[in-house]
Amino acid sequence: MPFSFFIALRYLQPKRTFVSIMTLLSVIGVCLGVTVLMVVIAVMAGFEKRIKDTVLGFEPHVTLETQFSGFLDEDGFPTGNGWEDLAERLEGLESVTAVSPYVSTPAFLQIGGEPTSAAAIGFRADDTWRLEQLNKLNPKGTVDLSGDKIVIGSAIANNFGLSIGNKITVVSPRSLRDLVKAAQKSQEARERGDEEAARKAMEVVSDEAVLPLELEIGAIFSSLQYGEIIILPLHHAQHIAGLEESVNGIGVVTENAYRAGEYVEGMIKVTPPEWRVTTWMERHQQWFNAVAMERTMMYFVLFIILFVAGFSIMVTMITVTVQKRQDIGVIGALGGHVNQIAWIFLAQGMVVGVIGIMCGLGLGGLILHQRNTIREGIQKLTNFQIFDSGVYGLVEIPARILPKDLVIISVGAFVLCTLAALIPALFAARVDPAKALRNL
Q: Which pTM does this prediction carry?
């Protein structure tokens, strides 16, 4: 065993006690710092993974959207925007596993005399991928988009006390907008005294209005993020949006969601210019950036705990150098090199750091393994809901231990402990043996 390391271990174990109290406090400080950092970062990584899984559990990997509703035939009716041909071309790409055309539109719901707005999405009845994703949400009832039944989110169902079999009226926003404009024109005509123009204004809007649909609730799905949407059969969504035979979006599922950006170039080559192509990561970039920023800030904030532990080690080492001043003088007088003396105290800090890190990783792993049991115990004792499932939509606290995070935490803690011991070590190395032995 090297001389400096042997002396360092002797200083860490005084004669009358198994371990120095100050050394024990330093180890506990490092241990708690590593534990807190490990637990918090693992939980945040779990939340980030859960968010991505939630997004991918309902949204396609690549989305094509357009405002182009199609051309008009000789009678003035829309003929579609060519989405069928585009869907076939996308299905022919090697990286594509599923294609899901849809119509997304705002809608008004008339529920027992109470109007409310909602986001409506229409899918084909034979859209296998969409039906699989909906069934993964454990819906109550049967998901069937082949007739006049709809699927609604749990938030809407809970707010209005709806259940399977109830009927709701879906109203197109275009109808309300046209009705308001017609009413304004009719009022202006009446103010001018032109009753005929007022009557014609209302007749025109009644002839051109998109009629409301009375649909039956076939299933209710539970989702914190998508709980306020309604899902219609595609033909009903086209009617509400006034698109006739067109769609305004096509979802594309790829072989690997995390490589969706690499597949976009091939899709753009077969996509008309009026369609905009975006990946799921681009659509939720701000959300993911916010989570990543919070995680990074947590690193900086929680490393302060390790700084405090480092100061504890520094104070311990300074105290030891003062107590062992005469010992340092003897070592110097016997020919001990300055580097050997410095390494005695530097090794103490490194040993404290290694022991603290190992204990911290072990304690952090234990807490993460029992995190939900600990959560339940705290809730019973304090009657306080931690990560309320009604707010966060989580049955259990998510956690994800990444090797990269463990390396960053361990290396960071070790460097801080070593730097904390470096200043006292340099101070001890500069002690003059003659002055140190003067009062021996």
A: 0.66
